[in-house]
């Protein structure tokens, strides 16, 4: 029985990268057209949080954990290439979102002093990444808008996890998008909708620019079945993604085991053990 999570839809909408949980977690790609399911990562250790590299979707970034070594890597989407390390560091890091041209990456770092922080860096020129948000609060799940000019993210700086958006890279014109809690922001394809989770509801918030951003109507899109994988929040596992049409969503459903229908209580089991397994002198 395979456990799947962290879905990430390719730029073409034809493939979905997932983490397959097993003895050693690996990244797989499901092709919607061919209905094939292939393994991408072949090295040892646990691999998590796959993210497609735009605009062509020929590569995938992910985090690999082997013993005490943790790092982010990029490999070809068919697994035929040689993985390349990106933004090495000693702390746990997860890739989250690329700029539309695929040259910039936003990722999160788990710092024992400042909790989850958002970092950004360029994959060109060998430049080192820099913290984008590393306050006392927990900031995570950064998501670049389709035009790359805005970043949505979640933060508990208000005392409750909420969704925000902020101008990138200026880090200005910040707006709170959710009203009564939210996690896991994902942009609609036109950049005029911001999806997020609020408990068992998937919410769509209208985004207006005139010229500064404003959140308009917030409406539930669907009620999330209790059997669907529930990530987000402090778990930092992406639980859903949005298809390029902005109308279809990808979730995974947890396998349901048969519930127990009988309870057996054994008393005086030491005496029963002696009877079944007598010991000689």
Helix content: under 10%
Count of domain modules = 1
CATH class: Mainly Beta
Overall body shape = globular
Describe the structure.
The structure is a single chain. The protein is mostly beta strands and 281 residues long. Helix content is 3%, strand content 47%. The model has no long low-confidence stretch (mean pLDDT 89).
Summarize this entry quickly.
3% of the residues lie in helices and 47% in strands.
Keywords:
4-stranded antiparallel β-sheet, mainly beta, Neuraminidase, 281 residues, single chain, 1 helix
SSE layout:
Layout lengths: L2 E7 L5 E7 L4 E6 L4 E4 L6 E8 L5 E8 L2 E8 L7 E3 L6 E6 L5 E8 L3 E8 L7 E4 L5 E6 L5 E6 L6 E6 L7 E2 L6 E5 L5 E6 L2 E9 L3 E11 L17 E2 L6 E2 L18 H8 L5
């Amino acid at each position: 029985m395979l456990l799947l999570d962290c879905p990430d839809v390719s730029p073409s909408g034809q493939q979905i990268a997932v983490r397959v949980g097993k003895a050693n977690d690996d990244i797989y790609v499901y092709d919607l057209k061919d209905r094939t399911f292939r393994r991408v990562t072949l090295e040892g250790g646990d691999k998590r949080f796959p993210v497609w590299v735009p605009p062509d979707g020929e590569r995938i970034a992910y985090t690999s954990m082997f013993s005490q070594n943790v790092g982010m890597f990029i490999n070809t989407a068919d697994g035929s290439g040689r993985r390349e390390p990106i933004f090495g560091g000693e702390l746990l890091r997860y890739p989250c979102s690329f700029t539309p041209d695929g040259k910039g990456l936003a990722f999160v770092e788990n710092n024992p002093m400042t909790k989850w922080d958002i970092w950004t860096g360029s994959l060109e020129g060998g430049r080192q990444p820099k913290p984008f948000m590393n306050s006392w609060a927990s900031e995570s799940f950064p998501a670049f808008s389709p035009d790359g000019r805005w970043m949505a993210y979640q933060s508990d700086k208000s005392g409750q996890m909420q969704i925000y958006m902020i101008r990138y890279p200026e880090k200005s014109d910040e707006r709170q998008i959710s009203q009564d809690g939210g996690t896991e922001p994902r942009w609609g394809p036109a950049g005029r909708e911001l999806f997020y989770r609020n408990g068992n509801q998937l919410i769509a918030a209208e985004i207006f620019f005139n010229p500064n951003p404003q959140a308009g109507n917030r409406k539930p899109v669907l009620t999330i079945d209790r059997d669907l994988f529930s990530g987000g929040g402090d778990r930092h596992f992406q639980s859903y993604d949005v298809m390029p049409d902005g109308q279809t969503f990808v979730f995974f459903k947890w396998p349901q085991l048969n519930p127990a229908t009988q309870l057996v209580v054994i008393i005086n089991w030491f005496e029963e053990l002696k009877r079944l397994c007598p010991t000689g002198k």
